[in-house]
Amino acid sequence: MSGMSARLMRLAFEAAAELLWPARCAGCDLPGVMLCASCGSALHPIRSDTACPRCGAPDGVHGCAECGRTELVFERARCAGVFEWPLDRMIRLHKDAGELRLTDPLAMLVAHAAGEWCDWAQAVVPAPTSPGAIARRGFDHGAQLVAAFSALTGVPALDVLRARPRRDQRGLTRESRAANARASIVPLQGAAVPQRVLLLDDVFTTGATLDAAAAALMSAGAGEVRALAVARACGGRL
After folding, report:
1. Mean pLDDT, 10 residues at a time, the chain of 238 residues
2. 8 Å CB contact between 209 and 127
3. Quick check: helix, strand or coil at residue 64?
């Protein structure tokens, strides 16, 4: 299915959803909007000029307590906001409740965070979702997010990674997340990967999934991978 066809299908779904389930604010449940002005003003954006350039954590430009001495395959990272209310609820509603009307607002947040990286990138790739999660939810939230990001920025979306069956990353320790991700993410056989790639996920927690996905992209021919996430979980919040 082409990107345009997928987008038209999603718009049709959203129109039907609006009739059956009228929009409510993702932050406070106010009817009529997906995010009201009050909750929108409560978002905690991360400024790229003061964030850690390696992992995207806020206020980490002069020394990051989040990534420390951790070695990362991706070159640098940017995140749109802190994984706190209302952004965390927006992401959970999008991913776990199937509220696809939040896809475009989330994509707009991360596109703004990406900034000039969109001119640098030759492709944007979703961090792959596990088969079990896709079966449980009935859709691939990462692919939806990347398609919307691509439509907004003009960066071509590329589907070249797969996740083998694995344990859900939520609730695992930092070390277990890394081992779980490394064993599960692989490039498609024969995939053509350009030199400059953006890798997009919804939440950057320990970076294990993004790091494993970046390693898979590098093994398939990428020269540099930069990571993007809608939200950055900080302070040990797994």
Report:
1. 60 57 87 92 92 92 79 95 96 93 96 98 96 91 97 97 73 63 84 96 93 95 98 75
2. yes
3. coil
How many whole angstroms separate alpha carbon 151 and alpha carbon 154? Answer: 6
* Helix, strand, coil abundance in the chain, percent, nearest 5: 40, 15, 45
Domains of the chain are 45-62+70-232 (3.40.50)
Q: Where do runs of H (alpha helix) occur along the chain?
A: 3-20, 37-41, 87-96, 103-114, 117-120, 131-137, 141-153, 174-182, 208-219
For residue 219, give the amino acid letter. S
Q: Tally Cβ neighbours within 10 Å of residue 116.
A: 8
Q: DSSP readout, 153-168?
A: H-PPB---EEE-S---
What is the three-class DSSP state of 214? helix
pTM for the model: 0.85
